[in-house]
């Protein structure tokens, strides 16, 4: 343990880098980090349930999932992927800044992350608006007439092709998956707003920045979820 | 337990290299999506997505530099549970028509 930092005349004010119930700073940091990783493992299961539902229905309604997937804008999806990757970079640069003791640089990178996160949500809102305009939102006003190239319109009772209810299931899963992902983004942007304020107040130093690091883990996890969503919802049926 | 007081600080070059690799992966996967590879489109898309995810987890989430073995245990457990969820569910749904 680092005894040189022991403060004799200020026993009442303990450093956030070493609370009294931890033996060392390393132990405290490992405990916080482990808690965050267990939370992320739980998040894997949370999104995993929806990914599993997508897998089951894509297997059952293979034909209409193809044409429904092609209704998504691959341009906006690609831009959003790039925006999220950039926001992961700004988080990493923010953590690097505070490790080097640069407080205002951390504030800058956190705000940059929030701006990119909001840009993602704005583009997502635009995509959602287009779905409403084209009546591709599941519900009473859902209307769908798209076909894959060469796909034949069959009676609705047929199992595989050109059944609007099958496309409706795709859009239900699309809104569930991207909606829950967007909700995580909203939480992340709020979190970074709070952390940017606390960083501006000078709470974090090169010695103590665990909350920044754990928020970063959360943000990167949300990025990884999007990487898979982009592939599964936008890309894999594009060639059909 | 020995305490490692010096945290790993990623170099600017490695941060930017991973960023460029992720953007390159995105370009590659979008390009590949328009080429008709039959069932292998899904394989290629998921392989590139997994490569990108591994880059993010190892470098941006600092797993490559952590000395804590429990982190690895939690990650492997999460992936394993996800595998159980997907594999057993599909083992059911893909065999329902077997008579």
If you had to describe this structure to a student in words, what would you say it looks like?
The complex is a heterodimer of chains A (240) and B (99). With 240 residues, chain A is an all-alpha fold. Chain A has one domain (25-148, 162-235): Cytochrome c oxidase, subunit III, four-helix bundle (Four Helix Bundle (Hemerythrin (Met), subunit A)). Helices cover 68% and strands 0% of the residues of chain A. Chain A starts with 24 loop residues before the first helix and ends in a 5-residue tail after the last helix. The model of chain A has no long low-confidence stretch (mean pLDDT 90). Chain B has 99 residues and is mainly α. Helix content of chain B is 69%, strand content 0%. The radius of gyration of chain B is 19 Å and the shape is flat. At the A-B interface, helix 1, helix 3 and helix 6 of A face helix 1, helix 2 and helix 3 of B.
- What is the helical fraction of chain B, as a range of percent? 55-70%
SS elements, strand count of chain B: 0
Treating each run of at least 4 consecutive H or I residues as one helix, how many helices of chain B? 3
Provide mean pLDDT of chain B, rounded.
Answer: 91
**Largest interface, C-beta within 8 A:** A-B, 56 and 52 residues
Could you tell me the strand content of chain A as a percent range?
A: under 5%
Radius of gyration of chain A: 23 Å
**How many extended strands of chain A?**
0
Question: So what's the oligomer here?
Answer: heterodimer
Classified by CATH, the class of chain A is Mainly Alpha
Assign the CATH topology of chain A: Four Helix Bundle (Hemerythrin (Met), subunit A)
Shape designation of chain A? elongated
| Cα-to-Cα separation, first versus last residue of chain B | 59 Å
* Distance between the first and last residues' Cα of chain A: 62 Å
Q: Treating each run of at least 4 consecutive H or I residues as one helix, how many helices of chain A?
A: 6
Number of domains of chain A: 1
Series of secondary-structure elements of chain B, N-terminal to C-terminal:
HHH
